[in-house]
Amino acid sequence: MLTNLTLPTLNFEPAGLAPFINSQTIDIHLNKHHQTYLTNLNNLLPLIQVDGVEFSSLEDLIINVDRVSEGKKQAAINNAGQVYNHNLYWDTLTTKANSESAKMSSAFGSALDGFGSYEEFKKQWKEAGLSQFGSGWVWLVTDKDGKLSIEKSSNADNPLFHGRQPLMTMDVWEHAYYLDYQNKRADYIDQFFGYINWQFVSDSFDKKITA
Ligand SMILES: [Fe+2]
Hints:
By secondary structure, the protein is mostly helical. Helices cover 51% and strands 10% of the residues.
C-alpha cells in the first residue's frame, strides 16, 4: 500500500541553478508548493486505498486513477499529478556544467534527431510552453517504439494519466519563474535549455525502450 511519500533529494544545491533560477525560488517551489501537494496526497492516500483498492507506487496511482472513487478522484488527480510532475521537474534540471557534460546514448541521440535538429526541438518546446494558457507543463514523451514527441498539459494533468510515457518536463506555472522573470515566460524557457539533465533523460529513455 502506498503511504508516506517524501520530497525527492535534488541532484543540485539550491543555488546551483543560478542565474537560471535563484535559490529562493527553488526553496519556495520545493518546500512550499511541492510540499503542500505532497502533504495533501499523503493525507488522501488512506482515504482512496479502501475496499480492496491499493496502489504500489505513485505511477501506479496515476495510471490507474480511475479506480479511485468519484468523490475523491479529482483531489487524487490534482495532488498525485502535481507530486509526480514536480518530482520529474526536479529530475529534469541540473547545473549548467552537468548539463553540458552529459553523455546521451546513441539511441536517445537518434530519437532526438527525429525533430530534424536540436534548434527545431527547442523551437517546438518553446512554442508549447508559450501557448500553454495559464498554469501547466511541457513534456517530452516517448512512445513504445522510441519516437519522441512534445506535449503540453494544464494544471496537474500529465501524459501518464493518458497512457503515455514522460521523459522530462518544464513547469510553466508562474510560481516556477515569477520571482526571477516576472511575466516573461519566454525568457525562463530560453534559459531552461542550458540546465536540462540530459544524462537523466537519456538514461530514462533507454530504460523505457528496453523495458
Ligand atoms: Fe511548480
